[in-house]
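Figure S7 source data.
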Amino acid sequence: MTDMRVLRKTAATNHFLSEWVAQMVHLTKPDQVVWCDGSETERQRLFKQAVAARVLIPLNSATRPGCYLHRSNPNDVARSEDLTFICTPNRDDAGPTNNWMAPDEAYQRLRGWFDGSMRGRTMYVVPYILGPIDSPFARVGIELTDSVYVVLNMGIMTRMGTVALDALGSSDDFNRGLHSTLDCDPQRRLICHFPQDNAVWSAGSGYGGNALLSKKCFALRIASWLGRKEGWLAEHMLILGLQSPSGETSYIAAAFPSACGKTNLSMLTPPPSFRGWRVFTVGDDIAWMRVGPDGRLWAVNPEAGYFGVAPGTSAHSNPNAMKMVERDTIFTNVAMTPDRDVWWEGMGVEAPAGIFDWQGRPWRKDSDQPAAHPNSRFTTPMHNNPALSPRVDSPQGVPISAIVFGGRRASTAPLVLESFDWAHGVYLGATMGSETTAAATGKVGIVRRDPMAMLPFCGYNMGDYFAHWLGMQSRLKHPPKVFMVNWFRKDREGRFLWPGYGENIRVLKWIVDRVNGRAGAHDSAVGVMPAEGSLDLTGIDISNDSLKEAMAVKPQEWAVELDLQEEFFTKIGETVPAELDVQREALRAGLELD
Ligand code: OXD
Ligand code: MN
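Tokens for the predicted manganese (II) ion complex:
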């Protein structure tokens, strides 16, 4: 099965790669090695094998052509943050918000587990590019894996195959990813990052971000480390283009913690009153951003597909996503209907009778368990997205006019706020938080701080990360404006004040108008707020009172907020730049709290 042509070509052109693969083969002892070329023939062959091995279930070819369902091990349904480690020689380089292990210890433990782990299995060599081909942003990774499910997902999520070997040429500069599902036992599960070696070793999980090493492991944790070293940013951000009826397009990068609707916002469908407006998706999860020769910030999406959360995705919340998962999609842990279509909670259609839950068990509507796992996913190619930006493959990326930080806050944070300047914008990002839900914690309204939505994804010390963000200002002649948004503020009865989804375009428009000096605003103690009448509210169903409440800045709430922000910085410790304390004290003074 080994593609000898590819192997010979690579061995001839890149001895770093062939030597490393040989070492890993020696360690893991697979029965065979398959070098993936990314061709359509290969894709078809691997889908067939995955079906034969019962890794994938083919879905109804009339209603879901090219679609498959994967049911993961029930002990392996999400990223394992507690088993994810940053393995730097110095513990302080990882910082107090990351799990840390010494590199020697991590390599030694994992080597023990990997020894002979692929006996009786196939090792797939998966070369991939993050970023548009021929882009100065692009980086190559090679993932060695024993999971055909991983290979097929990587084929959707990245530009995968010979194209990556061609881009690599004879260079030694590639991410070395080693992955084995082992026996999928949580006791033998670890996801270890070695930033100084540009390497990731992942064992014992076959799921999403634990196993598709291109995504959170390389494109965020390792890339954030590289970005700091090389003067750029790897961020947990969507990138969208907002096009006005006159054809002007502005690009926005936005960070939200998981489960705050990043995928929805990145492919938003405007409401009828915004006829002529369009939102184009450049990316839904990750942005790599560099300073261009013009002194502006330019961004690419390193990925080529979406690994989106299925539950809650509907024709109302995200019509483009519903369209894109109609074909050539791998579903993981959703429910299956009797005619082999998919279903999940919040899909906006009644569950048909005779459904099977995410573990393949018959499921009834009166069950107290969800049919689809709450973290069930779709993996779909970006080219399926009707709102895909025509600039998505642009080697230079797109120029970013505005950076947006958002969270889920029932109180305190107004609908939208513009920062006074770059440093205040960094402060807004660094203090971002989202409220936990009752389902997750038993306590509503507990704010989990998640700076720039990067807490689980920053490959180094958070305080140093803030300093890197502050330092970007000196590199940027024309920095983007920075904003904070909150779609989730509630009234006293617990109802959302702002309708959200497609209506969020009104806030995006205000942001772009501010960038272009077209919208009025006034200073509040905590940031710059929309002037009355500057937010376009044509055709929206919202009362004046609700809008006022959604925008309110209440000093008593902010007093508590600033104390909590200070507490969080104290936990990170002395690496937090003094500039951020200055920002907080300025806000305190502005609120006349002291
Ligand atoms: C994701 C996440 O899967 O942020 O993108 O958890
Ligand atoms: Mn994400």
